[in-house]
Amino acid sequence: MRDQEPAPGHPERRLTTKETAESLGVKPDTVYAYVSRGQLSSRREPGGRGSTFDAKEVEALARRNRREISGSSGSGGELSVRTRITLIDKDRYYFRGVDATELAARHSYEEIAEWLWTGELRPGITFTAPKAAVAVARRAVDALPEHTGPTDRLRVAAIAAATADPLRFDLSEDAVLGTARILIPTLVAALPPARRAHRDEGPLAHRLWARLSGRPADEPSLRVLDTALGLLVDHDLAASTLAVRVAASARAHPYAAVSSGLGVLEGPLHGAASGLAHRLLLDVLDLGDAAPVIADELRAGRRIPGLGHRLYPGEDPRARALFALLKELPGAGPALAAARDIVATTARHTPLHANVDLALAVLTVSSGMPSTAGETVFAVARTAGWIAHALEEYGERPLRMRPSGHYVGPRPPQPLPE
């Protein structure tokens, strides 16, 4: 289709919606999303059947999209991506402009997930999974070796669930949201229960508890777990979230995108960090004093887990919110005291504050959970955030997450190796 000819008195060249979408490498629906965000202006020509767009404005937006990954936006050479999901500002963070700690204090994990995905709250919503999807995921997870870690189990469950969904390649918003509401409870249901009498109904936190602890759950404990899930649902472009957006940029389906995030999450500097803090707490509780435990960590050249965060100069707001609830948790007193001892001992040399990994460790230690439980909580919680980022990325130009390599090897031509 040819560009529309400029009308008298309007020298700018106009593009149709289809031409604009092709220029930007997006779907027509995304063009109108750009209009609603104020990034493009549209106009209906007299007698025309659709909106038209200024070609210069479209090209300017296309150039901005191409520059996003160039590091030229004052990010110090780091990847910079436009997002409307999470803002981290000083010692606070926000989901779609709303204080995340206040959301987690007032709403369930599922309600926060819906807010993150759609910008709407759905009070009382719970996620349920079809029996067929759960059965496929459970069979795959049950076939794994007994020593398999939780992130591997979740990744296998996600892949198995994908094979049971013939519509997984439908990347429309409604389809992806439907997948998300099924995938998250499927991941939880696929995990082996920690005790025989367990719940597979009700809020997700209730179902997850039975996979983490052999103890019966009381309301204060469930509230802490549900709040932890809500606080951890997203944290801007963490390493695992970036992996999800790269997969979504290549138009991988949601199950594959989530699997990408789970692969990155397993590192000790990301989702597995709470397990290190869990073991540190146990050592302090065993010795009754943090000083010798901290000394051993420093002597071995290891950083103290559960302390400090590169995005927060002060205390991690997620830790602050969880510690306030943990004070009300029956039986959490010894673990809380050990955590305070760790912070105070380390502060003699380095002014570091507790982060969310230490708070998670207090929950897992005081609830009789294994050291890997915090990693499980982190992974399940963050799945909702990954879906939100995948949805956002599906609306952008395909394959835009493709930085250029800076080659520093031998200059060609080089002789063939012998």
| Cross-sheet strand order for the largest sheet | 1-3-2
**Which percent range describes the beta-strand content?**
under 5%
Overall pLDDT metric: 89
Number of strands: 6
Q: Spans of 5+ residues with little confidence (pLDDT < 50)? A: 1-10, 69-77
Q: What's the main sheet like?
A: 3 strands, antiparallel
* Percentage of residues assigned to helices: 40-55%
Report the order of strands and helices.
Answer: EHHEEHEEEHHHHHHHHHHHHHHH
Distance between the termini: 55 Å
Rough outline: globular
Classification by helices and strands = mainly alpha
| Number of discrete helical segments | 18
Rounded to an integer, what's the Rg over CA atoms?
24 Å
What would the keywords be for this entry?
disordered N terminus; single chain; mainly alpha; three-stranded antiparallel β-sheet; 6 strands; 418 residues
